[in-house]
Structures are given as structure tokens and as C-alpha cells.
What we know:
Oligomer: single chain
Largest sheet: 2 strands, antiparallel
Strand order of the largest sheet: 1-2
Number of strands: 4
CATH topology: hpI Integrase, Chain A
Helix content: 25-40%
CATH superfamily: Intergrase catalytic core
CATH class: Mainly Alpha
Amino acid sequence: MTPESSKWPLRPPVSWEMLQILDKELDHNDPEDCCVLACALVATSGQARLGELLPTCASRHNPSKHPSVSDLCPSSTAAGSRTLQLPTSKTTGRAGATIFLCSQNDCSDPISALETHLKANNLPRHYPLFSHRLRDGYVALTRRRFLKRCNEIWSTYNLPFITGHCFRIGGTTILLLHGVSPHIVKVMGRWSSDAFLRYWRSLEILAPMHAELLAPYVSRILPHEKTPSR
């Protein structure tokens, strides 16, 4: 019953092509850019909220609110997939949550981006996971700085302005476009209800993927069970 005037417009998802652009344009030898790319891929792959990953202040770290390097768990599969323990989340509060970071074979791989980031910045285990070297010290990557850097790049490709929630929406959409079961997507995204269905995008692609050229329907009524004609 909410009036249309009170609803937010649909936000565009971060797409695989947009991640490819970030991978191409960010400087893989720059400490901050390595941090930005790692955060973008973790946020998308893990269907995470930016507020769960990034602080608003670059000079302070609260390990009970945002992940430290030590919250990144060791590889759990032969391909190198890992989990990240979130100290807090929107739905569970201080009980925290676990996000799944699955290895990929292309530029959207969060594992290789994380490894490059950690190597480039040589972060101590108690430092913010998404922080980087700056002159003689370290600073945390803030939500504002992260979005500014990403949008600086995407704007040169005439792409729409992206907000924090677009990464979570994008992660959901990318998994669905790759044919991952909606039930698995729901669990991986820590969706507590079917509300995540509202965030599906690219339905013009998803609908044909699952419902186009279906096999002919075979009636379950046997010939001798046909209903009599009137």
C-alpha cells in the first residue's frame, strides 16, 4: 500500500562488465587501487552491504564493527575459496555473519584481488581488512572514498552513478545470471526472507534463461480417464 512517491527508484546493479572495467582501469601497483578492487569484488561476490565492510572514518578502526585482516579465513577448497567473518551485520547485529568468497576464473575473482591487495599493503593482522599504505602509515578505505573512486572510473564510460547497495544487488544478479539456484543465492546473500526477490535485475535475461522453449507439456490424464463430453 506504499504510494509510489514514497518508494526509492530501482537502483542499477553492479554488473560483471563494470567489474571488468575496474580491473582494467585501476592501477594494480597502487596500494589504494588494489584495496579498492579487492573491496569491490568482495562486496559483489559476497553480496555484502558496504556498511558491513567499510567505516566512515579513515583514521580509526573498530574491530567489533568492521572486519580486520584476521577475520579472513584460510582457503576452504582446493580452488582457494574462502570465508570472511563479519563482526556485525544489519540483520544479526553483534552476532556477526559469514560471507562466502568463491574463486573465479576471470577478473571477478575476489580471492586473487584480496591476495594482491594484502601483498601490496603488507597489512598487520589487527588492521582493517580494507586499508592501505599512505606515505609512512596506513589509512582505512572509507565508504565515501571507495564509491568516489569507482564512480570516477565508471563515469568515463557513461555508466550510471552507483551507490553502496548496488554491489549487493549486483552480486545477487550475477549469480542468478550464471544459473546458480535462487535458494543458494538466498543463503549466500544472507537473505532472511524472500524479500531478496525484489532486488532481482535483468529479468529480461533471467526469464528466458529459465522459461524459454520449455519441453512440450504432456497431459497427465490417461486416454481412458478423459472427462466425458457434455
